[in-house]
């Protein structure tokens, strides 16, 4: 079946502009994560959606970052007034959701954001 | 989540089995061992996971010692496309976000 898809694959923007990144999770996956990965670094958790529960926004680095998810489908990550330090690969992952057994996250290919 | 220790790098000849070790001596009874890999410029890819028993899928095998303090990921017939950074993680499923944290991992290079 189809995996997690993200768009755009690459985005170049000017400092101060807003950008919107999109994630289409695997069908039937109730959990959706956004991560950020700077060049040569590990994963940085941003936000988590699980079903209709309130999202876990504890990883968002500033109020310029926000995300939405419609039900258990598409999610958008919005970065307002982009800064050069926002340049990174933004990764989306989805999973079947928390369960008594293991929960495997499946990642999309990422959106590579470059802020000039 | 328990800490894991992996060698920073390994080399393997194409067509041979690649055995990647991971130490997780502080693992608790309900924690799973997960392996992911990240090929350059791509998103992380799930490989395999296990709790106590050895596991095998189309990508790899996972061997977990009886005391569960270490494990080995085996790629039975490595190809050049298996060159990647491999991450071993231990975690258990609880309510709320299962935030993945990757350590340094093992940079595996498959040589022709």
| SSE order of chain B, one letter for each helix or strand | EEEEEEEEE
| Content of β-strand of chain A | 35-45%
Gyration radius over CA of chain B: 14 Å
Structural shape of chain A: globular
Query: What percent of the residues of chain B sit in helical stretches (DSSP H or I)?
Result: under 10%
Strand segment count of chain B? 9
> Which two protein chains have the largest interface (Cβ within 8 Å of the partner's Cβ), and how many residues from each?
A-B, 29 and 20 residues
The ordered string of helix (H) and strand (E) elements of chain A is EEEEEEEEEE
Largest sheet of chain B: 5 strands, mixed
Which secondary-structure class do the elements of chain B indicate? mainly beta
Fraction of residues in H or I helices of chain A: under 10%
Please state the overall shape of chain B, judged from the principal axes of the Cα atoms: globular
Largest sheet of chain A: 6 strands, mixed
How far apart are the first and last residues' alpha carbons of chain B, in Å?
37 Å
Number of helices of chain B: 0
Helix count of chain A, per DSSP? Answer: 0
Question: Ranges of chain B with pLDDT <50 over ≥5 residues?
Answer: none
Outline the fold blueprint.
The complex is a heterodimer of chains A (116) and B (112).
Chain A: E1 5-7, E2 10-13, E3 19-24, E4 31-37, E5 44-50, E6 65-69, E7 75-79, E8 88-95, E9 106-107, E10 111-115
Parallel strand pairs in A: 2-10
Antiparallel strand pairs in A: 1-3, 3-7, 4-5, 4-8, 6-7, 8-9, 8-10
Chain B: E1 9-13, E2 18-23, E3 32-38, E4 45-50, E5 55-56, E6 61-64, E7 70-75, E8 84-91, E9 106-111
Parallel strand pairs in B: 1-9
Antiparallel strand pairs in B: 2-7, 3-4, 3-8, 5-6, 6-7, 8-9
């Amino acid at each position: 079946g189809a995996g997690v898809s993200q768009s755009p694959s690459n985005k170049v923007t000017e400092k101060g502009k807003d950008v919107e990144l999109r994630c289409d999770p695997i069908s039937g996956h109730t959990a959706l994560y956004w991560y950020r990965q700077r060049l040569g670094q590990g994963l940085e958790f941003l936000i988590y959606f699980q079903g209709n529960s309130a999202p876990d926004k504890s990883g968002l680095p500033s109020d310029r970052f926000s995300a939405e998810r419609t039900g258990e489908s598409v999610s958008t990550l919005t970065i307002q007034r982009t800064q050069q330090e926002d340049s990174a690969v933004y990764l989306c992952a989805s999973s079947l959701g928390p369960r008594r057994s293991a929960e495997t996250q499946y990642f999309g290919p990422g959106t590579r954001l470059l802020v000039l | 989540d328990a800490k894991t220790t992996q060698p920073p790098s390994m080399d393997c000849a194409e067509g041979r089995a690649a055995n990647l070790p991971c130490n997780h001596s502080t693992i608790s009874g309900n924690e799973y061992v997960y392996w992911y890999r990240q090929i350059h410029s791509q998103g992380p890819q799930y490989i395999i996971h296990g709790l106590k028993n050895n596991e095998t899928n189309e990508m790899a095998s996972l061997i977990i010692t009886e005391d569960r303090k270490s494990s080995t990921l085996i790629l039975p017939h490595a190809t050049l496309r298996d060159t990647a950074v491999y991450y071993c993680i231990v975690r258990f499923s609880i309510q709320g976000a299962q935030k993945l944290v990757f350590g340094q991992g093992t940079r595996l290079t498959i040589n022709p």
